Amino acid sequence: MATQLDGPITINGSLSVNGTLTGQIGRDGLLVEQNLVVPVPLSAFRVWDSMAALPTAGSSDDLGFVAGTFGTAVPYLATAIASGPADGYARALIQLPYQYVAAQGVYVRVYHGMITAVASTSATVDVEAYKVAKTSSLVSGSDLCATAAVSNTTMTFATSTFTLTSTGLAPSDVLDLRIRATANGGSGFNVISGVELVLSARG
Asked: Which end of the chain, C or N, has fewer beta carbons within 10 A?
């Protein structure tokens, strides 16, 4: 026969359940994880002003999607050769997962570096992000990225984190994300090797 306890119950210790835990626990009652990582496949990125597939090499103002050799090199996004100078973009639509806690932290983590040679003058990586207004053909508000462009003048790959202003963001919101990579001087390429969202979420 089940024992019924009425009113609030406080347990000053651990609770072990040997049977079945019944009843409903709302998502708001779950623990908030501060660093849920959501990978953004590089294949999700498109030509920024047409949303067509990226070229296989950086050209004009587009980053190239380089497939790499399976078993030897991974796919990556790359500028044209730095002697251009090169300035390329790639764009993706990314949906915040249902676990995301509204208005909590959202960060874009970008892995990047130079290959072949270091740019002799400068190289940078930057992120822009807008909230998509689903009920119209417009974006909602201004650029959410609060972090300035970072320097990328090394062949040792780095990790840079770009902070998004999360006020007004909610689960299932769509972000219109654009990455810009530049390279000026020399014979190298500025490369993006990975992109992730890092956010606060419920388990």
From this structure: N
